[in-house]
Design a protein that fits this description.
about 575 residues, alpha/beta, Rossmann fold, eight-stranded mixed sheet, globular
Length: about 575
């Protein structure tokens, strides 16, 4: 009797081949050792974004490596950034044209090649982060997208993630380190220029070792000494170095001879510290270590301080947080199956232990209950403010619904193109969003991107599409008014700009805390909350503020918006 043919299933055949040829690791990495360039795909604008990468000598694909992330400074780039991290920045030498002087390479020249690096047993990476754009919004997302890309390529020891950077990147180090302190094992800002909103987060360093570097002739010296005073009171530990006679190039000393790698090597992340001190204003930064802020008023400061006072005994002091969860599973002071004592703002609860326990304000009293956000309430991804609309994938849309003459249509397109132009003080910022007419918006655009809509319901068909669900509309006959607001829609944002654009020049620049680098029209959105109605210039505000936690207009704001007779409320 003839034997029946035996067929090997395809998946089994592939597995056999992989075994034969010794390719069995999910992290098979065949890149060369040393410095090089890679990229990740960004959903912000469907582009490949570059980053510089260092792979250790004798790289072992089965080993989990520590990762150092470096953030470059303004008017610099990722390649030069990686060089500076390794203490080999712009080379210096003899100028044959002017004997006796010591020239140096320009940043562009230094970025064209890789010099020898001092070997270290770390993976190190430096994102371009769109150029001179600061490290909030899109560039901030780039940093975390780069880390995710690295995790897909290599085994990364997530308890040994370190963050450092210089100047603008030093400010970014403080911002990223303090908004998400439980990501990092230690941070090292060098001559930092922190962005707006960073100073109030200093308490978030309670479980972070920090090394701060500055030259005493640096224009940022005052900023650095202010941060030294803050971090001395709040950081888990603070090392501070001040270089006498050094200006805005202290990185040449801070990163010399691989010092920063040796300093980082002392620290590992502790996801379950005894104490957690955490301050935030936004749901997108609502978790640190074993504490999650479940409810707050976006834009207002919420602070929560928690600590174990003994086994299964926790105290909580909360200001501004309306609900929170303690994620206790894995904490050495917590034993499941035993009663848990939790004291919240002086009131003690004895609760059945669980891996996570939740509390919320009911009226003016704390109760042991889980907060559940309403379907249409403010929450992560739907909290504003205006700037949130341009921090991810977004499209600029101009109106054609009223069949405008060619010159008017051209002006509308020019306005949208101007908003989408990320040209700043440091030149072109590498963000490339689409600019399209309302008639060209695709079904997929509604579900994957924020829409920046110019015009009114009469002129822009996309505004008209959602008109009944939007909170307000500008009278198309109103002259010299600007109405700008953000509103959640389809799990994304709509930003409506009717009348004058949000970047209409101010009469007075106003005061700012922190440093701004890009100088783009997009960055100017940071000055505003959820909505603004102005006449002639944003200095002349008729009404502005935040929607409430249910995305409703506060009564006083609604009255002010209606008083002028140019806004109709739904």
């Amino acid at each position: 009797m003839p034997m029946k043919p035996y067929f090997i299933p395809r998946f089994l055949f592939v597995l056999i081949l992989l075994t034969i040829f010794g390719v069995s690791s999910a992290y098979c990495q065949r890149l060369k050792s040393g410095p090089q360039d890679l990229s990740f795909f960004s959903g912000v604008d469907d582009t490949d974004q570059p980053y510089a990468l260092y792979i250790p000598e004798n790289f072992d694909e089965s080993k989990a490596y520590p990762l150092v992330v470096f953030l470059h400074g303004a008017w610099s780039n990722h390649r030069l950034g990686l060089r500076r991290l390794f203490g080999v920045g712009n080379s210096q030498g003899y100028d044959f044209i002017k004997p006796g002087t010591i020239p140096y390479e320009t940043d562009v020249e230094a970025s064209r090649y890789w010099p020898p690096f001092r070997p270290v047993d770390y993976i190190a990476a430096a994102p371009l982060a769109r150029g001179t754009a600061g490290y909030q919004g899109v560039p901030e997302q780039d940093v975390y997208d780069m880390i995710d890309d690295l995790k897909s390529r290599f085994l990364i020891d997530e308890d040994r993630l370190y963050l450092t950077g210089l100047s603008m990147g030093g400010g970014g180090t403080l911002w990223l380190g303090l908004t998400r302190p439980d990501v990092w094992a230690a941070i090292a800002p060098v001559c930092p220029a922190p962005p707006d909103g960073t100073a109030e987060l200093a308490g978030n360093a309670a479980n972070l070792p920090v090394h701060l570097f500055i030259g005493d002739k640096d224009g940022l010296y005052g900023t650095a000494t202010e941060w030294k005073a803050r971090l001395e009171e709040t950081a888990l530990s603070l090392d501070y170095v001040e270089y006498p006679g050094v200006g805005h190039n202290s990185w040449e000393w801070a990163y010399k001879d691989g010092f920063i790698f040796d300093w980082f090597s002392q620290f590992r992340r502790d996801l379950f510290p005894e104490k957690v001190s955490f301050t935030t204003r936004w749901f997108r930064y609502n978790r640190a270590y074993w504490v999650t802020v479940d409810d707050m008023i976006p834009g207002e400061t919420a602070t929560i301080e928690t600590k174990f006072t003994g086994p299964n005994a926790v105290t909580v002091a909360s200001t501004g947080a309306l609900a929170f969860t303690l994620n206790l599973d894995g904490h050495p002071q917590f034993t499941s199956g035993r009663k848990l004592s939790v004291t919240v703002n002086g009131k003690t609860f004895s609760v059945k232990s669980a891996d996570a326990v939740s509390f919320m304000l009911s009226g003016d009293k704390w109760v042991n209950s889980r907060f559940t956000p309403g379907l249409y309430s403010k929450q992560k991804g739907a909290e504003g403010p205006l700037y949130a609309a341009v921090t991810g994938s977004h499209i600029y849309v101009y109106g054609t619904a009223d069949n405008p003459p060619a010159d008017v249509l051209a002006a509308r397109r020019t306005q949208a193109m101007s908003a989408a132009d990320w040209t700043g003080m440091g030149g072109r910022i590498m963000v490339f969003p689409r600019v399209i007419a309302d008639r060209d918006v695709r079904s997929s655009d509604y579900v994957r991107s924020n829409l920046i809509l110019f015009g009114t319901r009469e002129t822009n068909s996309v505004i008209e599409k959602f008109a009944d669900n939007l909170p307000m509309h500008l009278d198309p006959k109103a002259e010299n008014y600007g109405l700008v607001y953000i509103f959640p829609m389809n799990r994304h944002y709509i930003l409506v700009n009717s009348g004058l654009p949000w970047w209409t020049p101010l009469k007075n620049a106003g005061d700012r805390r922190g440093y701004a680098f890009s100088g783009t029209k997009v960055e100017s959105l940071k000055k505003y909350r959820d909505f603004i109605l102005f006449k002639e210039t944003p200095d002349e505000i008729i009404s502005h503020g935040y929607f409430d936690n249910n995305w409703k207009l506060p009564a006083d704001a609604a009255a002010a918006l209606q008083a002028g007779g140019v806004v109709k409320l739904n």
